[in-house]
Write a structure and sequence with these properties.
Layout (H helix, E strand, L loop, with lengths): L8 E2 L2 E2 L7 H35 L8 H12 L9 H25 L10 H30 L13 H12 L8 H8 L2 H16 L1 E3 L6 E3 L9 E2 L2 H32 L8 H12 L8 H26 L6
Helix pairs in contact: 1-2, 1-3, 1-10, 3-4, 4-6, 4-7, 6-8, 7-8, 8-9, 8-10
């Protein structure tokens, strides 16, 4: 369903109930596939730089994100930026289908099945939290396989892993039948911050809907102010794009230290691994506070265009599936 869930009021009376249909319940899953494909195309090169900075930056391999980008392309070619992309190609489509489909249904659950009922910012955050925990079940295998391939620098016969299947086989041998879910608790901890992603997305969306485009500088005015008499509202698609990017930046600013610890835990060697709960102490002891922000710049830069595009595609596809006409 559309994120804003605005409640129509006519002549002071609450809107008539709009009960969710089967199409409403499945639309989020279908639209999530398009969102996941968009994330891969726009975001994977940034993700490769981020992961390499997080995992290898403390070992002196790279001076910073730009150095990581230049050296990766120079030594391994531009295609190296899409290392490990075969798993996310399917994985992100599946993950976004599950994340956004479950998000839509958790919202409907909180609305009691009535689409006309307006959720609070907090309730949007709760729906996001539940969606984050749900998608962690799929995200864990995808991410651990992807990241282990991304931090593999050797080529040819020197490679530890020949591809995604080989990584999965290794994890299963090392940790048992559920080896590809090694790090599930860490992933759920990081995905808990989806509360802030989707809660802030609703805050930003509401704020953007209160603005009007006006002909004079600064070209935006608050609804109801004298300056906006002849103003027009922002288009819903533009609101989705901007709010999606801002929500993603909010999410990463808050969860980044947890993301660093998660990724270090999931990519470390399998001999005497450090438990996730002790990884925070290990990072601080070996690198100080700076260890928790390694790779933050490419992550922050990547977050806006990747998630703004993905959420824009998701919301637009949702409207198309449900045949909603908006500005």
């Amino acid at each position: 369903m559309s994120a804003h869930n605005t409640q129509t009021v006519l002549d002071g009376a609450p809107a008539q109930p709009q009960m969710a249909t089967t199409r409403d319940r499945v639309a989020g899953f279908a639209a999530g596939v398009a969102s996941g494909a968009t994330k891969l195309l726009v975001g994977h090169p940034f993700d490769t730089v981020k992961i390499r900075c997080q995992v290898e930056g403390g070992h002196g391999r790279f001076k910073g994100p730009l150095d990581c980008l230049v050296n990766t392309v120079r030594q391994e070619g531009p295609r190296a930026l899409y290392k490990g992309a075969s798993i996310p190609l399917v994985g992100w489509a599946v993950m976004d289908a599950i994340q956004l489909g479950s998000l839509s249904n958790y919202r409907l659950l909180l609305q009691g099945g009535n689409k006309a009922h307006k959720l609070s910012h907090f309730e949007h955050g709760i729906a996001g939290l539940c969606a984050g925990w749900t998608v962690a079940l799929v995200a864990t295998p995808v991410e651990i396989i992807k990241m282990r391939l991304q931090v593999q620098y050797a080529s040819g016969a020197e490679r530890k892993y020949r591809g995604p299947i080989d990584v999965a086989r290794h994890l299963t041998r090392q940790y048992g039948a559920l080896g590809i879910w090694h790090g599930l608790a860490a992933t759920m901890s990081q995905r808990s911050f989806f509360f802030f992603l989707w809660g802030s997305y609703d805050v930003y969306s509401e704020w953007l809907r209160s603005l009007r485009v006006v002909p004079s500088f600064p070209y935006l005015a608050k609804a109801g102010s004298p300056e906006e008499v002849e103003g027009r509202p922002l288009s819903e698609k533009l609101i989705n794009f901007i709010a999606g990017g801002l929500g993603a930046n909010t999410f990463w600013c808050l969860c980044y230290p947890v993301d660093v610890a998660k990724n270090r835990f999931m990519t470390q060697g399998d001999e005497n691994p450090i438990p996730f709960r002790k990884m925070f102490k290990h990072v601080y002891r070996t690198e100080g506070l700076y260890g928790f922000v390694r790779g933050f710049v490419p992550t922050f830069i990547r977050a806006f265009p990747t998630n703004a595009s993905a959420i824009f595609v998701w919301e637009s596809t949702m409207r198309l599936i449900k045949s909603e006409s908006r500005q």
